[in-house]
Design brief:
binds flavin-adenine dinucleotide; 5-stranded parallel sheet; about 25% strand; D-Amino Acid Oxidase, Chain A, domain 2; 10 helices
Length: about 350
């Protein structure tokens, strides 16, 4: 039988698209350039896991660590918040992406490595491309360290050594994910990563033994302007379309949602403009609202002030953490900025 749709890339965007198409009885091939299971440099945070489970109920089948505590720090100021709702569910991308790919295959999609696409339509979910300008991307260095003690708090460090971005610690089952993410260009990021790991050892978040060789993987993170939704026969989804939230670097939810919408567009024989309209409505406007952080010279000033206010006002602290983990689907950024500048 003729293949209707070729989905290129079996990350969260591509596997979700293939799953949704196969569920609707459409002939779909899912093609990746790598054999699975494969790893992907990522913090592995599913932000606002309750929202995830509403949209993708099968995610609950996959084990992960629910985290309710967050500590936000900037230079000498810090505050800690415990949320009644889980802030993030941490997973390992090797398992998560393999799980989603298998879901697509169980639903009826075929999976192949390095095959020539044959579908009438293509969904391009091949991930981040090299940016044309610095304004379109950030860089992240990341690693999972095996730990012997339990850790239940996400740590976010703004302004560490002046970077425009943030450093983080995400607890996972048996591991912690340590990362540094910054807008491009960022000098000495490798050295900053090594120094951040040393800092975590001093803070007793990691031990010398756990930190080991202080290794990391580096990867580009795209913040493309939202102008790349489709061409004649191809829809772009996930990182391939730049659907990442500036300010936090969160992209898994937007990848999966755009994959689902791309599948729906083809299955319901909608015009491709419908895909663009739905992406903008469901998350695009939200991503654009987060662009306030693109005024990079302001980033560290704003974060310093925000953490200072949060260290004195529990209400503001909750708002800041809820905004970071997107517990509210409506953007809080406007409210947030108003409070900082008034
Ligand atoms: C260090 C780091 C930390 C991050 N942490 C988080 C986080 O905690 N939470 C979060 O929500 N987001 C996070 N992100 C962002 C998130 O990883 C991405 O937004 C998400 O992976 C995008 O999914 P995707 O399916 O679009 O692309 P990808 O996950 O990149 O998948 C693309 C797939 O396409 C394949 N491919 C590439 N080229 C081809 C080709 N020509 N033909 C066939 N296949 C191809 C690749 O092998 C890959 O399997 C992080 C990103 C980085 C870099």
């Amino acid at each position: 039988m003729a293949i209707e749709v070729s989905v290129l890339g079996a990350g969260p965007a591509g596997s979700t698209a293939a799953y949704e198409l196969a569920q609707r009885g459409i002939d779909v091939e899912l093609i990746d350039r790598k054999h699975f299971p494969r790893d992907k440099p990522c913090a592995g945070g599913l932000f606002n896991p309750e929202l995830f489970a509403e949209e993708f109920p099968y995610i609950k089948e996959l084990a992960g660590k629910l985290v309710y505590n967050a500590r936000m720090c900037c230079v000498s100021r810090r505050f800690e918040v415990t949320s009644p709702k889980p802030l993030v569910k941490t997973i390992f991308r090797k398992d998560f992406d393999f799980f989603l790919m298998k879901k697509a295959v169980e639903a009826g999609a075929s999976f192949a490595v390095g095959k020539k696409p044959e579908g009438k339509f293509t969904i391009d979910a091949t991930g981040a491309k090299n940016p044309r300008t610095y304004a379109q991307a950030g860089i992240c260095l990341v690693n999972d360290f095996r730990i012997e003690h339990g850790l239940d708090t996400v740590h976010v460090h703004y302004c560490y050594r002046g970077i425009k971005g943030y450093c983080w610690v995400f607890p996972k089952t048996g591991y912690v994910n340590v990362g540094v993410g910054a807008y491009l260009p960022q000098r000495n990021i490798r050295e900053i990563y090594a120094s951040y790991v040393e800092f975590l050892i001093k803070e007793k978040i990691l031990s010398e033994k756990e930190a080991g060789a202080k290794q990391y993987k580096a990867k580009i993170i795209p913040f493309a302007p939202l102008n790349h939704f489709f061409t004649d026969r191809t829809l772009f989804a996930g990182d391939a379309a730049g659907f990442v939230r500036p300010g936090t670097g969160e992209g898994i939810y937007f990848a999966m949602l755009s994959g689902k919408l791309a599948a729906e567009t083809i299955a319901r024989r909608r015009e491709f403009h419908w895909y663009e309209k739905m992406c903008r409505k469901r998350f695009g406007d939200y991503l654009v609202s987060a662009r306030v952080w693109k005024k990079r010279f302001l980033t560290n000033l704003i974060m310093k002030k925000a953490v200072r206010i949060g260290s004195k006002s529990p209400e503001f602290a909750h708002m800041m953490v809820e905004d970071f983990f997107r517990l509210h689907t409506h953007p809080l950024a406007g409210e947030f900025i108003k409070r900082i500048f008034t």
